[in-house]
Amino acid sequence: MILTCPRCATRYFIDAAQIGTDGRTVRCADCHESWIAQPALESAGAETMKASPTQAKASPLFAAAPAKPRLRPGLKFTRSPWSVGIALAFVLLVFLAFVFRTQIVQFWLA
Question: Is the pTM for the entire model greater than 0.90?
Answer without folding.
Answer: no
